[in-house]
Amino acid sequence: MSLKNLTVSQRFVLLVLAALLGMLLLAVLGLTGTRSAMEDGNNKSIRNLVESAHGVVAHYEALERAGKMSRAEAQSAAMEALRPVRYDTTEYYYIWTLDGVSVMHPARPEMEGQNMIGKIRYGDGRDLIGDLVNVVRTAPEGFLMTEFPRPGSTTAVPKLQFVKKVDGWGWIVGSGFTWMTSMPASCPVPCSSAAWSPCCSSRWS
Questions:
Q1: Could you tell me if 70 and 61 are in contact, meaning their C-beta atoms sit under 8 angstroms apart?
Q2: Which of 13, 33, 125, 192 places its Cα 20 to 30 Å from the Cα of 69?
Q3: Domain that holds residue 110
Q4: Helical segments of the chain, H only
Q5: What is the CATH number of the domain that holds 144?
Q6: pLDDT tens for residues 142-184?
Q7: How many angstroms separate the CA atoms of 77 and 4, rounded?
Q8: How many domains does the chain fold into?
Q9: Higher-confidence residue: 163 or 138?
Q10: Alpha-carbon span 53 to 188, nearest angstrom
């Protein structure tokens, strides 16, 4: 079957499966690899997964610009295309506005439509949603280390997030997966705007 004959949702699922296979390969290689190589691999994996989701949203945003769908129809279709998708068993995609309003959050649907700036805080009082929004204030995308409960739990765990801006709609598409629970003994990966390392977050200082 040709990829051209697949629906947007089917192609998206194939992209997610490909990214997951890459994560599995990294896990196997990590048995003998270095910590820095694993960090780089995790950065690439979460970036690829989010870029796939961003591509789905961008597809519907383009349909709206072309006059083939209304904005309400296009945005609804984009949200519902991402809502049911899971990877690594429980991880999911989310969408926020640049103002901090939850557009789509499968794990916390009760937040949708609400401005959550200042309402979800780390243990030290910092604003989780404010931090996510700030990542794309000066850049189109970026990494952030956060603390957020797994689905079905109230205990916050460290999660590496990657978010990417959808300019036409003022949206942020992102996802995150559970990371380590303690800082590594050494920090071989230099900090940069293009990649994340545990050493680059004040959360671990």
A1: no
A2: 13
A3: 3-181+189-204
A4: 8-29, 35-65, 71-82, 128-135
A5: 3.30.450.20
A6: 999 887 777 677 777 788 899 999 999 999 999 988 764 433 3
A7: 20
A8: 1
A9: 163
A10: 30
- 54 token code pair: 């961003």
Burial of 44 (0-12, 13-18, 19+ CB in 10 A): middle
* Dist. CA 2–CA 24, nearest whole Å: 26
Query: 186, 142, 178: which is closest to 36 by C-alpha?
Result: 186
Per the structure block, which two tokens stand in for 197?
A: 């390392």
User: pLDDT band for position 43 (50/70/90)?
Assistant: confident
What are the tokens at 137?
């204030």
- Written as six digits, the tokens of 70 are 């209304």
In the block, tokens 């003994």 appear at: 185
Predicted confidence band at 199 (pLDDT cuts at 50, 70, 90)? very low
* 149 vs 31, higher pLDDT: 149
Burial class (CB in 10 A: 0-12, 13-18, 19+), 31: exposed
